[in-house]
């Protein structure tokens, strides 16, 4: 079973950038579809990005797709989320998640990290 630990969150001004990292242990992430999700206070968790086994990335909307980039380094067993041009509405706890095999954004991700807080000030 893979374990996930996120890092890289923090406080940033609008227009700034952050890179989140998700370090995996226990097994290689090369067999997993990796996803990033976020949850803002009082809101439901929402999908942010995923990277499938073939390296194809998926994003939920044009506004995120143009600013966020998901990537993985299998040698480091780590997944990244590069976030540029951050907006106050991006403020949320960001979670890394893993789904074994070929998965979509609607699949059951049964492994989750503890989350990292991202706060964007206006």
Please summarize what this structure is.
This protein is mostly beta strands and 122 residues long. Helices cover 3% and strands 51% of the residues.
Question: Could you characterize the architecture of this molecule?
Answer:
This protein has 122 residues and is mainly beta. The protein has 1 helix and 11 strands, in the order ββββββαβββββ. β5 and β6 form a beta hairpin.
Percent in helix: under 10%
Largest sheet: 7 strands, mixed
Write the H/E string, N to C. EEEEEEHEEEEE
Distance between the termini: 40 Å
Strand percent estimate: over 45%
* Beta strand count: 11
Rg is 13 Å
Output the structural class: mainly beta
Discrete helix count: 1
Indicate the overall shape: globular
Low-confidence stretches: none
What does the average pLDDT come to?
94
Properties at a glance:
single chain, 122 residues, mainly beta, seven-stranded mixed β-sheet, four-stranded antiparallel β-sheet, 1 helix, 51% strand
Helices and strands in order, then pairings?
Blueprint: E1 3-7, E2 10-13, E3 18-25, E4 32-39, E5 46-51, E6 57-58, H1 62-65, E7 68-73, E8 78-83, E9 92-100, E10 111-112, E11 116-121
Parallel strand pairs: 2-11
Antiparallel strand pairs: 1-3, 3-8, 4-5, 4-9, 5-6, 7-8, 9-10, 9-11
